[in-house]
Amino acid sequence: MFVDQVQVKLKAGRGGDGCVSFRREAKVPRGGPDGGHGGNGGSVVFVSDASVHSLSYFRFHPLLRARNGAPGEGGNRTGARGAEMRLPVPVGTVVKDAATGDLLFDFVRPGQALTAAKGGKGGRGNASYATATHQAPREWEPGRPGEEKELSLELKLIADVGLVGFPNAGKSTLISKISAARPLIADYPFTTLTPNLGVVDAGAMKSFIVADIPGLIEGAHLGQGLGDRFLRHIERTRVLVHVVDVSPYTGRDPVQDFDVVMRELASFDARLARRTMIVAANKVDLLGRDKSRLTGIKRLAARRKMPFFAISAIKAEGLKPLVRAMAETLARLEEDGPGGVS
Ligand SMILES: Nc1nc2c(ncn2[C@@H]2O[C@H](COP(=O)(O)OP(=O)(O)OP(=O)(O)O)[C@@H](O)[C@H]2O)c(=O)[nH]1
Ligand SMILES: [Mg+2]
Q1: Cα–Cα distances in angstroms (integers) from residue 9 to residues 5, 91, 102, 140, in the given order
Q2: Span 304-327, pLDDT tens digits
Q3: 150 phi/psi in degrees, rounded to 5
Q4: CA neighbor of 145 nearest in space, from 312, 265, 10
Q5: Sheet holding 44-48, edge to edge
Q6: Is this prediction's pTM over 0.90?
Q7: What's the pLDDT band for 341 if we cut at 50, 70, 90?
Q8: Ligand 1 atom closest to the CA of 214, numbered from 1
Q9: Structure confidence at residue 339 (pLDDT)
Q10: Is 80 strand, coil or helix?
Q11: Please, which residues have CB less than 5 A from ligand 2, an ion?
């Protein structure tokens, strides 16, 4: 199950209490204090892990507690530390305070760790209170409570290029031809229900990651179709490839389709609609003699100064120049620096 938004409650472990104890040995008449410290409570730690792809674990485990520290013991023995609870999260997870929405951490690489709730410190044992004038202390310190946190975890996939377009336009077909991703492809709208990622090998150029998300229709921002919630997953991309179905069988006008998708992008986030865009007119194999549907969208792309490619995803025709354009655009934006992403 693909889950990309959850709320969790974390409870770090309590520290163990300090111990009050005095040495009692057969040949030592008045042994000194020897109560050890309590062990520290375990912390709750998130760790980004490239082999985890969803937040579904947390849907079933919304309350997570780390172990308490053990109390100190006689003989100056410190109590055992509470085990840390390490929770793998997918790369791309954004951690926020559930109440305020404040951003706490953004996992952008595998292997990053965030101590989200710190374990309580163990209390001091009586041995540590002994001084020259206070030789039989009975003081001790209770362990401190562990931190409690209510957090929201949100997954925003990390990809360089996002595919957008109407349902059935051929986005999944395209990603399946240019990467090793094997999403479900079928001749009906809303085949893709959750995002897919694929790594594209661009030959001499740097390889990059493409995200295929469910299709958009008019009113997606109002919840039509699958709505616009998956757009979150292309927020981090630097380039969008707008896949437009130019075959006569849609019964729609490709130029209108283009405008509808642009409006939905803008309703979600104006910055997304301004992102660098490449237009891919798909299914040209179905065009026949009448090329007007293709020329219409081609002109629109020219007007908007967007690179344009006519492709047949299913026949893998025209894909090489498209992939090269994606790689080159990414390389150019990278040169421009991080300011490229707005
Ligand atoms: N003739 C032809 N058919 C294509 C082409 N590309 C995709 N198709 C077909 O179009 C249908 C939809 O393709 P998908 O790749 O599932 O479309 P999608 O954009 O991912 O659709 P959603 O996941 O529903 O948003 C499938 O039946 C594909 O085989 C193409 O270039 N030519
Ligand atoms: Mg699809």
Answers
A1: 14, 20, 16, 31
A2: 999 999 999 999 999 999 999 999
A3: -115, 120
A4: 10
A5: 85-89, 44-48, 113-117
A6: no
A7: very low
A8: 25
A9: 53
A10: coil
A11: 172, 191-192
